[in-house]
Amino acid sequence: MDSFYVVGASLGNSYVKISSEETSGEVYSFIPAQACCVLEFVPGGTLKKLLMKNRRKKLDFGVAIKLALDLSRGLSYLYVKKIVHHDVKT
């Protein structure tokens, strides 16, 4: 079985951060021969676009709570996997 690493990257960067348990959590920056970045499709665009489009309306409290919980759960998952996002906005 091939070994693999969890890779964290962000748009606009020419490097990736790779954390390995074998290296006691050290993080290395380099350009691997092959890498895959998987992003979840978000219909309707970014959170910022949603907020800007509806800036004259008050965001429903339930929607605000759901957005905050989804964001915190996603960041928590990345933290557990030792991935640093580096590009959280809005």
Automatic annotation (TrEMBL):
Residues 1-90 form the Protein kinase domain. SUPFAM superfamilies: Protein kinase-like (PK-like). GO terms for molecular function: ATP binding; protein kinase activity. This is Protein kinase domain-containing protein. The lineage of its organism: Eukaryota, Viridiplantae, Streptophyta, Embryophyta, Tracheophyta.
